[in-house]
Amino acid sequence: MAEAFVIRKSSFRIFRRFGEIFRPESWIFLLAFLTGVIATAWSYSHGYITAYGDAESHLNIAKRVIDSLTPGFAQLGGIWLPLPHIFLIPFVYFDWLWRSGLAGSIVSGIAFIISAVYIYKLTFLLTENKLASFLAALVFISNPNILYLQSTPMTELSLIVFFVLSSYHFILFLKNEELLPLIMAALFGFCATLSRYDGWALVLMEAGILFLYYFPVAFGFGRTDEPETESEASDDVASPEGRSLLAETWSLFEGRLILFSTLAFVGIALWLFWGFLILGDPMYFTHSQFSANSQQQSWLARGELPAYHNIFVALKYYFVTSVSSAGVFIFIAALVGMFAFIFNRENKNRFFILLLLLVPFFFNVATLFLGQSVIFIPSITPITFEWTLFNVRYGVMMAPFAAIFLGYLAYKSGIFGKALLVALIIIQTALYVIGFSPVLALDDGTRGLSSFIAKIPDAQNFMASNYDYGIVLTDDYARTVSIIRTNIPMKNIIYIGNKPYWEESLVAPEKYARWIVMQKDDAVWKNIYDRPEVNARLFKYFNKVYTSEDILIFRRIEDN
Amino acid sequence: MKKELIIIGVILLLGLSLYSLTLRGEFGNPGPGDFKNNLDQAARPFELSPERGRYVHIVNLAERGKYDLSQEWAEVAYPDVGISNGKYYSYFAPGTSYFALPFYLLGAKFNLAQVAVFFAEILVSIISLVFIYKIAKNVFSLTARASLFSVLVFAFASTAWSYSVTLYQHAFTVLFMTTAFYAAWKFAKESGWRAWLYASWVWVAYALSITVDYPNVILMLPIMVYFAYSTFSVKKLEEGFSLTIKWAAVATFLVFALITGLHFWHNAHYYGSWHQLAGGLQSYRHPDEIANNASASAGTTKNVATFFSERAIPHGFYILLFSDERGLFFFYPIFALSLFGIWAYSKKSREGGVSAEYILAVALILTNLTLYSSWGDPWGGWAYGPRYLIPSMAFLSIFVGVFISSGAYTGLKKFLAFLLFLYSSAVALLGALTTNAVPTRGEAMLLPIKKYNFLKNIDFIYSDQSGSFIYKTYLSGKLSLVAYYLIIYIAIALVVALVLIASRDKKHG
Questions:
Q1: At the N or C end, where does chain A have fewer CB atoms within 10 A?
Q2: Do A375 and A392 form a contact (C-beta atoms < 8 A)?
Q3: Domain residues of chain A, as ranges?
Q4: Mind telling me which residue stretches traverse the membrane in this protein (chain A) (predicted)?
Q5: Do A420 and B313 touch (CB under 8 A)?
Q6: What are the backbone dihedrals phi and psi of residue A201, each rounded to the nearest 5 degrees, phi first?
Q7: Residues A495/A538, Cβ–Cβ less than 8 Å
Q8: Shortest distance, CA B283 to any CA of chain A (angstroms)
Q9: Cross-chain residue pair B314–A8, CB shorter than 8 Å
Q10: Pairing mode of beta strands A493-494, A471-474
Q11: CB A50 within 8 A of CB A101
C-alpha cells in the first residue's frame, strides 16, 4: 500500500520566500557567523582561546608593534610571516582583547566566514549546483577543528582564507581566461605568501599551472580539434602554423606569468628583503635558532623525526592527519568525489584544479620529508616517543579540499547518494560529539606538545598574584610565564626584541628590570645565572622570591 | 527460472558437501569437564573462547532452561565471562546461542550435540550463498556464470569458510545482511502484500542482526538508509511535488520494535538493565587469579563503545587489509580484483538504474572496514584471516564477478581471476581444515612457534592435525591430511575452472 501526497508549490512558498531573503552566499555568511560566534563563546568560556603556546606569541608580536619598550614594525620579527600579526594590530590595541585572545578570534573568525562563503562559490564554479555547493560550505563550517581554530589567534585560518580566495579566482581565470581573476588570484596569493609558508607553495603551483595550461595547447593537447596521431601533433609544431601557434602561446604565457608573478611573488621578495634589512640574513627564517628547522634538529638527534627523508612515512603522516582533521567519513567521501572529478572529461581543467587544491598536501608532505616540520599524531606515532601529539592542526589545511570534493560528490550523486552524504555528515558530527573522532586541533592545544595550558607552571600563578609594578626581564621564547595571564603591561617587558634594553640587561640586570624571570637553560639563565660575574650582580641587587625546579624569579632589593 | 534453480541447487550441493567435509567437530555431548586442556586445544572444536562462550549458553539453555551459566560452565568460558547479580554470562551477544539451540536439542539425541550446533552455521552460510548469487544475478545483472563465480569466491576463497564451520557470529551477520539487502531491493520494486513481506524481513533482519553481534546496528545502517530511501519517493509535478510513502515500511517497524523489545527484556532480565550489553558486564575473576594477583580481585566494568576509536583506524586499516598477520589482500588476493570491479561498475550502475544499490554495496563495505579498523583489536584475537571483514567479503566477491564479466579482455581477466582464486582458496582451505587459533605477531613472537599467519596452518596439515569431523572420525589413519586437503582443493579448482573457462556465455553481464 503506497499513498501519494501532492504537495503544491504554494506550500513551499514560505520556504522559498525564506530562502529568498538572502542569496545562498548570505545564508552561508549568516550560518558561519553564528557557528563561529558560538564556537568562540565556547572556547572563551573554557579558557581555550589561548590554549596553544603559539596563540599568545601571535598576540604578543602584534601587541609589541604598538605597545612595547621599543614599538615599531621591527617587532614583527623574522620567523613567522607578518600578515596575521598585522591584522591583529588594531584589535590588540585594546588590552582586554589582547589578554583574552579575542583579538585573534576576531581575525580568525572573519577569515573563517569569508572562507566558508568562498568554498561555496568555488564549489559552485565546479558544479553550478547550489545544493552541492551549500553542502560543501556546510561541511567546512561544521568541522570542529576549523571551528576551534577560528576562535583562536592561530594563523591557520588566515592562510585558509587566502588559499581559498586565490584558488577561487585562479579557477575562474582558467574558466574564462579574463585578466581580472588572474590579478585577484595573484593578490590573494600575495597575501597567502605573507601569512604562512604554505602560501609560497600555492603561488609556485599557480605559476606552474599557468605553464601547463598554455604549453599543452601549443603542442596540440586540450584543443577541440585534437590531432589524431602523434605525427600529426608533431607536424603541428613543425609546420609554420605550428610554430606560429607556439610563438603566440609563448607570448600569451609570458604576459600572463609576468602579470601574475609581479604581484604574487612580491610578498616572498619583500619577506626576504625584510630579513636582510632587519636581521641581516634574508634566509633567517630557515636557519635561525628560532626557526622550525632548528627545532626539528633536536627531534632528529633523538631519533624522533619519523618522516625525515622517508617519503612514505611523510605521506602517511600527513594523509592520516588530513583524514582525522576533516573527519574520516567526510574525507573518504571527498576522495570518492575527487575521483569522480578526475574522470569527468567534460572539465578540461580538472587536473589543474586538482593540483591547486592539493597544494597543502604537497607542501606539508615536502616539509615533513625535508625535516622542516614535524607532526606527531597518536594513531601512528610510536608510543616510545616522548610526545605523540604535536602540530596536528596542519591537517586542517586540507579541510577546504574535503569540503569541495564532498560537494562535488553530492553534485554527481542521485537522491540516494545525496541522502547518504547528508547521513554521513550527521554521523560524522555525532562521532565528534561522542568522542569517537577526536578534535585533534583542540586536543593538541589542551594537552599536546603545542599546549601552554597543559603545563602552566606554578611560577605563572606566582607572577599573576605578586607582580605589582616595574619592568620584567624574561626570555619570551622560553614561555616561562604567560604575559597575557598576568597584569604585566607589555611595555614593562624586556625580551630579546627590545634593543638595547635586552643586551644591556644581560650585562647589568639591575639597570632596567625590577623583576627577572628565568627558566633553566633559557637565554636569561645562561647569560645571567650561569655567568659568575653577572650572577654576583644578580644576587647583589635582587632577592630570589620564587624557586622551583626549573624556574627562578627575582625582585629588586631596594624596592622591597 | 529452471536454470536459476539448477544453479541454486549446485550452490546448495557444493556448500553442503565442501563445508561438511571441513566441519569442525567430534562425537559426543561434551560436559564441562571435557573442555580444559582437551576440547579447547588448537584444531579441536572449542579451540577459542568465542565458540566456548556461545556454546556454554546453548547447553545451559537446553539443560537448565536458563540463559545464565552455572559455575562449572562459567569456568569453561573463562576468561570471557562477566557477572551480573551474582550470575555468570559470557561476553558474547546472545542471538547465536538462541538460534543454535534447536540444533543442540536435536544433536544431543544422537550424541552429536556439538556437531549439530556447528552444522547450524553451515546451513546459515549456505542460505547466504544463495542470496549472494541472487544479488549478483538479479540486482547487479551479472551473468549466471559470473554470479556463481562470486559465490564460489566468497564460499571457498575467503576466510568465510573458516568461520562457516564453527560457532561464530559472522555467518549470521552475513545472512542478515545479504537477505536484508535483497529484501530491501525487492521492497523498492514491489507493491501489495509482497512489499509488506519484504519490509517485514528488512526489519526482522536488522533486529536479529543486533542480537548476534552488537556492532551490526551500525554495519546494517546503509541498508536501513536505502530502505528509508525506498519508502519515500518524491516526484516533480507541474503543480508541485508528489510524495509517495510506502506504508508497509512504516507499519512493519512494529516487527523491529517487538524483537528489539524482547532483546531489551533479555538484557534487563539477565544483565540488570535494558541497555546493558553482554560485553560491558563486570568481569568475573577466577579465585586462582585473585590469589595470584591481588589487584585482580575487583572485577572491572567496560563501556563497549569506547573500544572503537578513530585513532585506531590507520593501524586497523593496515592490519585488516595489508598486514601479513590478517591482511585481506595478503590472505585472499582475489579481492584485489573487486576494486577493479567496483570501479568498472560505477558507470554501469547508472546505465542499469541500480546506482543506489551499487552505492549501498560500497557503503556496506566501507562501513564494515571503517568500523572494524577503529576497533581496538582489529586482529580479532587469535583468528584466521581478517574475520571482521567477512560481511564485506560477501559484497566484494560480487565485484570480483563484475571484474571478470565487464569490458574487454575477459579471457585474460578470467585467467587472472583463476590464478588468484587458486591461491586464495588454498589459503582458505588451510584455515578451514585445521585451526583458527592463529596468534597475532606480537603474541607469536613470545611463543616457540613464531608463526602468526597461515604458515602455522601448513604445519598442522603436515602433522595431520585437523579440526574436520569427517576426517578425524572416518579417515584419520587411512588418508593423510595432505591428501584430504588436495582432494578438496582439486575439486574446488575443477569446479571453478568449469565455471570460468569451460562453459560459454551468450551475453556479458
A1: C
A2: yes
A3: 108-221+238-446, 456-556
A4: 21-44, 73-94, 101-119, 156-173, 179-195, 202-221, 257-279, 325-344, 351-380, 392-411, 420-442
A5: no
A6: -65, -35
A7: no
A8: 24
A9: no
A10: parallel
A11: yes
